[in-house]
Amino acid sequence: MALTGRTALLAAIGSLPVGILAPSWAGMLAVNAPLTLAILCDYAMAAPVRTLQFTRTGDTSVRLGDAAEVQLTVANPSRRRLRAQLRDAWPPSGAQAPARQKLTVPAGERRRVTTALRPTRRGDRRAERVTVRSYGPLGLAARQGNHEVPWTVRVLPPFTSRKHLPSRLARLRELDGRTSVLTRGEGTEFDSLREYVPGDDTRSIDWRATARQTEVAVRTWRPERDRHILIVLDTGRTSAGRVGDVPRLDASIDAALLLTALASRAGDLVDLLAYDRRLRAHVQGRSAGDVLPAVVDALAPLEPELVETDARGLAATALARAPRRSLIVLLTGLDAAPVEEGLLPVLPQLTRRHTLLVASPSDPHVDRMATARGTIDGVYEAAAATQSQSQRLRTAEQLQRHGVTVVDATPDDLAPALADAYLALKAAGRL
């Protein structure tokens, strides 16, 4: 049956797409035919959404804590003027601003809008979809549609420990003999002769040179270069725990970045791998100038896996990537059970040919608990914290008895402490 008059009008209204009508007009349509006709005309004059064309430009990477900008260009190929509200959707951790933007694009032209992102987490942040609501000239009705416009911004680690790099490079220059302070090391590269001063190792005296002059001469040594450093990150379940305000893995990543920057400046070759039950990330064979950017890019999307780390698989992977004598730096936890059941059985494989250094971020909250006094709760907290600290100390001593160098420090101190341990090994000629 054909519909006529008011019945036909109501049927036409009912067939309108969802979102065409402003909510405040819904109750008036059945009694106000002229207004309804105006709404229908307004809807008909709204620019179509499906034919819009989108392109993106802008930043593809940003350090955590910094801001990135992504531009979205909207082209309107239709004959109608586009009056729209646009939402460029990103994940909540992208912290975009503004959330919605008004946009006007004349027929056959294009306009650009900018979305600012200040991500709150590491990793890849992908644009989800672009939603456009196109209004008619009167603003009474609108067309709405979604478009997929892919774009990815990689959020890199913040590398907060880079502030410690200048002081460690100065120490490195002292070891290399490039300043007036010459440090006696056990390296194999002869550097120069200087006058003996009280406190020098008598084994460094050069008797032939002393016989040729009136003063006692000692040899100085330059630490070896081109040593191989393999940084291994444990990404198993223990890396997901929070220490202070950051996950344990993030503290380990920051320490790995400082060590990479320092060792590459020292002329050593740096490789990296991340492992739990399988290889999660790796960097190998990069030059000194390329290794730090490569490590930053590889570690940016890395997340902890809630599985127990396969220590035998980790050791086998590390040995396969360290065919010659190397310094293996393992960033993991010092929890008693994982170390005793996982790491200790495979230590002989690692220490037979290589120097092993284990670094672990400790929880500063435990240190604060250990000083609590004055209340019953405070005494119990102090007892629990002291027990935890004693357990970590016993675990570290177990590793040290196997010839392992152990660095146990809070997240803020882990990176510089690891850098100092590396310099001490280099000065002692143990690399």
What would you note in describing this structure?
This is DUF58 domain-containing protein. Pfam families: DUF58 (PF01882). It comes from Streptomyces roseoviridis. InterPro entries: DUF58. There is one protein chain. The protein is α/β, with parallel strands linked by helices and 431 residues long. It is built from twelve helices and 21 strands. The strands form six sheets. Strands 18-17-14-19-20-21 form a six-stranded mixed sheet, sandwiched between helices. Helix 10 packs across helix 11. It is elongated, with a radius of gyration of 32 Å.
- Report how far apart the termini are: 92 Å
Low-confidence stretches: 1-16, 18-22, 178-188
Largest beta sheet, briefly? 6 strands, mixed
Helix content: 25-40%
Strand content: 25-35%
Strand order of the largest sheet: 18-17-14-19-20-21
Determine the number of helices (DSSP H or I, runs of at least 4 residues): 12
The strand count comes to 21
Task: Describe this structure in a few short sentences.
This protein is of the alpha/beta class and 431 residues long. Helix content is 33%, strand content 26%.
Helices, strands, pairings?
Layout: H1 5-14, H2 33-45, E1 53-58, E2 61-63, E3 68-75, E4 82-88, E5 96-97, E6 101-105, E7 110-117, E8 123-126, E9 130-135, E10 142-147, E11 152-156, H3 165-176, E12 189-195, H4 207-211, E13 217-222, E14 228-234, E15 242-243, E16 246-247, H5 248-265, E17 269-275, E18 279-283, H6 288-299, H7 311-320, E19 326-331, H8 336-343, H9 347-351, E20 355-361, H10 364-370, H11 376-401, E21 405-409, H12 411-427
Parallel strand pairs: 2-11, 14-17, 14-19, 19-20, 20-21
Antiparallel strand pairs: 1-3, 3-7, 4-6, 4-9, 5-7, 8-11, 9-10, 12-13, 15-16, 17-18
